[in-house]
Amino acid sequence: MSENKDMDLAMKKAEVLIEALAYIQRFNRKIIVVKYGGSAMASPELQKNVIKDVTLLKLVGFKPIVVHGGGKDISKWVAKVGKEPRFVNGLRVTDEETMEIAEMVLGRVNKKLVSMVQELGVGAAGISGKDGGLLKVRKKLSGGQDIGFVGDVKQVNPKILYDLLDDDFLPIVSPIGVDDDYNTYNINADDAACAIASALGADKLVFLTDVEGLYRDINDKTSFIGRLSVSEADAMIDSGMIGGGMLPKLGNCTSAIKNGVNRVHILDGRVPHSMLLEIFTKNGFGTAIVADDDAIMNEDNKDD
User: Fold this and answer.
1) Pairing of strands 135-142, 145-156
2) Crossing angle for the helix pair 230-239 and 246-258, to the nearest 10 degrees
3) Rounded to the nearest 10 degrees, how much is the dihedral formed by the CA atoms of 14, 20, 21, 22?
4) Backbone angles phi and psi of 28, in degrees to 5
5) Which residue, 64, 69, 67, 40, is CA-closest to 54?
6) Maximum distance among all alpha carbons in the chain?
7) Does the CA dihedral 202-203-209-211 come out positive or negative?
8) 132 close to 126: Cβ distance less than 8 angstroms
9) Using one digit for the tens of pLDDT, what is the confidence trace for 204-252?
């Protein structure tokens, strides 16, 4: 009886691998940008799971790029020096001292992620948006209010990323940029990931978030949306159905699709291996935002 159970388990594992094979073949050598932050970084176990997933993507032929945040760590260190973290419309008010702390903390997070990838046998390179002129910014205002050294990405120079990918490194990017006068600015990690994915024409942009995906009614779990066209997403934004932190995130998703990214995924980063379940299985796991032309395809023939 035990032998039969072992055989059944082995067969199920084989079926999973065979199902994944089609997606591995399709996306071989394709670029996937993963925005990693928030709850997905909340515990060592979740961090390990995400890094394992990204490393697996690299080993099976993808070209992953990680763009990470670190807002909770920044707030912790700001408090340690006796400052009160302040936010306006969800954006951190960043004076010169806070900017120095943010760059220090994000650099520390960056190198920790590099070490985690390399412990799994894959070469990784940690950079910030300052390296190679990757991210050029302008000052970002919040409702017309000056919030300090917070940047809006106005230009991406992806050469350093292409060079790292060509040399078989997994790039890990800290969301720091410079303006025309080479002043240092903090960038919202979602904004940085969207800009980078668009500039590289990434096949996929993945947001690891604190929710399962999108709902037409957040109070009705049966209203979950597995696939959403750009036009539908824009209509949801315009109607006011989407609020809170998901509003700018969905705006980034639609912007990425309109600027050449093939598909954007919103996934629950708190669930172990949610990224692999979404990418390598027919049923998927989170919400996929697609171009209008792609949305007319039969959902039973999920091709991502």
Assistant:
1) antiparallel
2) 150
3) 140
4) -60, 125
5) 64
6) 72
7) positive
8) no
9) 999 988 878 888 877 777 888 888 889 988 888 888 777 666 777 888 8
Please give the model's pTM, rounded to 2 decimal places: 0.88
The answer to whether the CB of 265 falls within 8 A of the CB of 212 is: no
How many angstroms separate the CA atoms of 241 and 271, rounded?
25
User: Strands (DSSP E) along the chain, which ranges?
Assistant: 31-36, 63-68, 87-88, 91-92, 124-128, 135-142, 145-156, 170-174, 176-178, 184-187, 204-209, 214-215, 224-225, 227-229, 263-268, 287-290
**Cα dist from 291 to 211, 223, 255, whole Å:** 22, 21, 11
Q: Name every residue whose Cβ is closer than 8 Å to that of residue 148 and which is 6 or more positions away in sequence.
A: 93, 94, 95, 96, 98, 99
Read off the pLDDT of residues 266-302 as tens digits, 9 standing for 90 and up: 998 888 888 888 888 776 688 899 988 765 554 444 4
φ and ψ at residue 281, rounded to 5 degrees: -125, 155
C-alpha–C-alpha distance, residues 281 and 47, integer Å: 22
Residue with structure tokens 């997905």? 40
